[in-house]
Every structure is written in structure tokens, then in C-alpha cells.
Write a structure and sequence with these properties.
The protein is mainly α and 314 residues long. Helix content is 76%, strand content 3%. The longest helix is centred in the middle third of the chain and has 35 residues. The chain is globular.
């Protein structure tokens, strides 16, 4: 059967959604609330960076790009999750499943690459402060951000094309909320060892390689900071990196747990919880982490929120 015919005839069924009406209502309200906070927080960051001239620097440009990618990232799956909670039939065609997976994995990979670019930016700022304006130009920042998204989507398309070229079993129930790699790979009827190895290679390129770049950047950063004579200077240098490092550990910890392991260790209930952490939790926490520990961002967001709301005395 051709791929085109399969995309029309084949459907997958999501099995992870609650069946009891009260649980469906609570799930819908909970996910809707989190989604609203995610959109609000990330949109505020993008608008604040755009509106404030003092934030037109490479560090904030990458932060704005990260928020923009995460808005697209959650939009790929969360509206679909909300619709499925309310629907009685929770099905998806093979073509729609492949599209959702390609965008989800691609934008998630772009997130990882952008975090690596942000680590490089901090490395140049701390280790080569005099050359920083010459190295981190706006042109380079745009190219790095675009390259992160293009590379993430390219790797994702290769992976998804490979997965959906494999034969699927008759049982087409996905033990998950959306089309992610581990639960879909469980439905493949073929020699799993070779295919798992191929998926592992793709995941390594998207996760381990950027993490290696981040670790290398921070090794140089730590070495440079420890050589600073002033304790205040060391604290200031570490404070500029602490928010980014917190996000890196959260993002890469979840992604490594989900994708850098064999298919045999897949546990549906446990993995569904982990997937919700990096699908909803990370995009929700990122704006909080970057704003609560950054006085410039807090001030910029405050000015954005009050700019169109003058006091009643005026």
C-alpha cells in the first residue's frame, strides 16, 4: 500500500484521555489555564523585548526567539489535546499524526539549539567582553536563530519520514495524548533494534550535540569567572547565567529521559507525565525563570503592562 493511500485509510486512536465526564472537565480547565499562562508569559516577553530599546541586545534577542518558538511549539499539540478531551472519538489520521510529530519534534529541537546559541552568547560576553560587540552582531544573531529552527525542522523531517515509512501493527492505539516518538514507535511491526538505533542517532544530534556545546561553553565560562579578582564580579557573571542554566537542566533533563533510551524502557503512565512537563511545564516556567531573576525584564514587562493603562488621575 502506498504512503498516500495509508494516510487516507489509516487512523490512530489516543488511549490516554480520561473517560469520566468530571475528569474530562477538570482536565480541560487545567490545560486551558496553563495554556493561557504560557501564551501570556511568552507574548509579554516578546512584546517587552520589541518595545524596549535597551533590550535590543543579543541576549534578549535570543530570549525573544526562544519565546516565539515555544509559542509555536505548544500550539502544535495543546489545542489538539483540548479538542480531544471534549471529543468522544479521539482519532488522528496517519498524515496528521506525522505532521504533528514533525512540527513538535522540529520546534522542540529548535528550542535545544537556541539554548546552545544562548550559551555561546554568554561565553562570548564573559570570556571575550571587549570583542563581544564585534562578534555578536545582529546579523549573526539572526543567522544563528534561523539556523536553529531550520536545523531542528530538517532533523525532525528526516526522523518522521523514517518512522512513518515503517510498517505499523494492526493495533493502532497510542498510549499518549499526542503523536510523540516513543508511543508511536511502539506500534511499529519490524525489527525494533535497528529502528531504535536510527531514532537514537537522530535524537543524539538534536539533544546531545547542543548539550555538548552548552557544557563546553559553561566550562570556559566557569574557568573565566574563577579568574576574576572581584567577588562581586564573579557573582554578577554567574547571575547572568543562572536563569539560562536552570532552563537548560529542565529542558534537557526531560528530553534526554524521553528520547535517549531504548524503546523497551517505555512506561506509558510515567512517560505521559514527563511529556506533560516538557510540553506544558517548561514553556510555562521559562518566562517565570527569566523574568523573576532579571530586573531589566521585570521592569520592561511592567512598563508594557502599564503603558496603555494610565492612572485615573490623568
Amino acid at each position: 500500500m502506498s504512503w498516500g493511500n495509508r494516510s487516507v485509510l489509516m487512523e490512530f486512536v489516543f488511549l490516554a484521555y480520561p473517560s469520566r465526564p468530571e475528569l474530562r472537565v477538570l482536565s480541560f480547565l487545567g490545560v486551558s489555564l496553563v495554556y493561557t499562562f504560557i501564551i501570556s508569559g511568552n507574548v509579554l516577553i516578546v512584546v517587552a523585548i520589541q518595545a524596549e530599546a535597551r533590550l535590543h541586545t543579543p541576549m534578549y534577542y535570543f530570549l525573544g526567539s526562544l519565546s516565539g518558538v515555544e509559542l509555536c511549539y505548544v500550539a502544535v499539540v495543546v489545542p489538539h489535546i483540548l479538542a480531544n478531551i471534549l471529543q468522544s472519538e479521539k482519532t488522528i489520521t496517519l498524515l496528521a499524526c506525522a505532521t504533528q510529530m514533525a512540527l513538535f519534534i522540529g520546534l522542540g529541537s529548535a528550542d535545544c539549539f537556541l539554548l546552545a546559541m544562548m550559551a555561546y552568547d554568554r561565553y562570548v560576553a564573559i570570556c571575550h567582553p571587549l570583542q563581544y560587540p564585534l562578534i555578536m552582531t545582529i546579523t549573526l544573531c539572526v543567522r544563528l536563530a534561523v539556523a536553529s529552527v531550520v536545523t531542528g525542522l530538517f532533523l525532525s523531517l528526516q526522523l518522521v519520514a523514517f518512522i512513518f515509512s515503517l510498517p505499523f501493527c494492526r493495533a493502532r492505539g497510542i498510549e499518549h495524548f499526542f503523536c510523540d516518538v516513543p508511543p508511536v514507535m511502539r506500534l511499529v511491526c519490524a525489527d525494533s533494534h535497528i529502528h531504535e538505533l536510527s531514532v537514537l542517532v537522530a535524537a543524539t544530534l538534536a539533544i546531545a550535540v547542543p548539550f555538548l556545546l552548552i557544557a563546553t561553553s559553561y566550562a570556559f565560562i566557569v574557568a573565566a569567572v574563577l579568574k576574576m579578582p572581584s567577588a562581586a564580579g564573579r557573582r554578577r557573571a554567574f547571575s547572568t547565567c543562572s536563569s539560562h542554566l536552570t532552563v537548560v537542566l529542565l529542558q534537557y533533563g526531560c528530553c534526554a529521559f524521553m528520547y535517549l533510551r531504548p524503546n523497551s524502557s517505555y512506561h506509558p503512565k510515567q512517560d505521559r507525565f514527563i511529556s506533560l512537563v516538557y510540553t506544558l511545564g517548561t514553556p510555562l516556567l521559562n518566562p517565570l525563570i527569566y523574568t523573576l531573576r532579571n530586573s531589566e525584564m521585570k521592569g520592561a514587562i511592567g512598563r508594557v503592562l502599564t503603558r496603555n493603562h494610565p492612572s485615573q488621575n490623568n
